[in-house]
Amino acid sequence: MASNVKKIVLAYSGGLDTSVILKWLQETYKAEVVAFIADLGQGEETEPAREKAVDTGACAVYVEDLREEFVRDFVFPAMKANAIYEGAYLLGTSVARPLIAKTQIDVLRKENADAVAHGATGKGNDQVRFELTYYALEPNVTIIAPWRDPNWNLTSRSAMIAYAKKHGIPVPVTADKPYSSDRNLLHLSFEGGVLEDPWAEPPEDMFVLTVDPRHAPDEPTYVEIDFEEGTPVAVDGERLSPASLLAKLNAAAGANGVGRVDMVENRFVGMKSRGVYETPGGTVLYKAHRAVESITMDREVMLLRDQASPKIAQLIYNGFWYSPEMKLMVDFVESTQENVTGTARLRLYKGNCDVVGRRAPKSLYDEKISTFEADEGAYQQSDAGAFIKLNALRLRVRKSAGLT
Length: 404
Hints:
With 404 residues, the protein is α/β, with parallel strands linked by helices. Helices cover 40% and strands 19% of the residues.
């Protein structure tokens, strides 16, 4: 235990875990605790969490509204990279952690604190994401992770509830949900509890952001999204801030049951984990962005970007947002977006999100060339024979040499 720690900045949510941790840090380290609350659009009022932190003994509380920065500087760059982890996960939790940790380090400096702390367990990815960011931004920072601390003995929910009651920390009176969840403007994630059986279907009453696709409206909803250099700027002609734009798409897509994912993923720490996600607006954004790219991005540039996409997704998932390789990748992706300006039209219907139109002022799609009707000489079909024969040369030589 670091005996010189006198002030700790805790990433605080106001839930049972971090409320207990706040008091536990005070008792165990005999230190002041600063509560840091990040508002990423989790759909909950931050004032009750602030009041609870004060009542639990925090010497100071910081509530930071990070919604616009989150969408602008983290969600949009991931979308431009087409960063999707293991083919399905749009990285809603992963992309939020570096912003939380970065701002927590800012609070550490403002308060001249000695350490940062978080409530992530020793089994998950979040401990890695938080701490890699801490170290990248403050190389010699002291980190306290209670779940890995040898003095931590509150290893069950009942033990934590008993500790909370002993110290007068309010405990929710409603029955605990049989899973854990994490929400921000991009998504809502569920894991643990009943979801640990990968054969078990998620309970329908679990979902919050999306209606059951079977009960979604019988008429489709159409949305048009405008992009400027790869960045979404307007929905149905209305220019919106990044956070407002994503919130509007969340409402439209969620009402049509769009954006549910149920997957078993590979955690960075080595185990497989089942996660269920609701990412309504993000699902629409990714599809719309890809649609505009399809008519504005050069084929070989797109291929190179797409080859980088899985690596970028892995870096985000594993917590390396503030790494030199991530910066290099992000700069590369930004350079591919210079001409990605245009509009995508999508149809949302009973869980489906389909692109039904795309247009751009500088489109690479030329109907005169692509048409199956008479092309008036825009494309010389006779040229294709020589093109094919040249590409077949190595195959012909190989066969002539008796190779298979």
